[in-house]
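Input.
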Amino acid sequence: MDKIALTVENLTKVYLKNRGKEISEKALNNLSFQVKQGEIFGLLGPNGAGKTTFLSILGGTVIKTEGKVNVWGFDLDKNPRQVRASIGIVPQEVNLDAFFSPKSLLELQAGLYGVPKKKRITEAILNMVSLSKQANSYSRSLSGGMKRRLLIAKAMVHQPPILVLDEPTAGVDVELRKNLWDNVKELNKQGVTIILTTHYLSEAQKMCDRIAIINKGNLVALDTTEKLLEKIQTKKATFKVKSFNGKKDFNVNGAKFFINSDNSIAVSYDKKSSNFSDILNHLRENGVEIQDISTDDGDLEDVFVQLTND
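Output.
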């Protein structure tokens, strides 16, 4: 039986406007889900969906209105300090003291968490995030990718079993992004449960075991990445063809044809109402000689748009 790292039950947050008078805004609406121990869990949603509010409740900077949150067996209301100790949050913004070295920053952070000097693992953490060589350099001299890795290191000083990454690769170039994900995968292999928010949906598709999508404070999807992709109803295909009369009209139920050129035809079709073999046969029956076929089964971005477009 899977152990549960995080349980959220009917979590609701209402922001009162006009000093608590009649007007209010519900940022989270009866949000319920669980995160399994040892998984990489994606929390996705458009701007304003409620992700930041949720992470702020976990971090203790926002007070929930209703519902329950249990982290690593600790209730947020009854054991707030234990909950904080069970989570390491890596913020989206780079907030480092420019004149501290990575080593001194980690030592300071460990002290703030009350970690005794004998139990600190500063050197091990620096090695884990590939910053051992820069241990005594000023933080201001670090590259953008190094600063992101240092934020992860700061969140790990108290050895939390759960690491929350809020847009960790925002503004990071492709090579450094890959290095960052390699670090995250290594932490996960060592048993750390990862909760990830990102606007790079291709990253979530590659990294996450399961994904929750929220929109306007509501949970609109929660499943494995594979099963979420199965929700895509529209498929696309492009046919490279021998030159033909581009004015020809094609008609297959549930399919739309687009003539790109005399040598290319694209089709978009609904999986429920159309069969690919019927489309193929229809083109051949109409004298189209097909030379090559490329297909597009869609990706997580298609699922995201489908579920969050009102």
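The mean pLDDT is 85.
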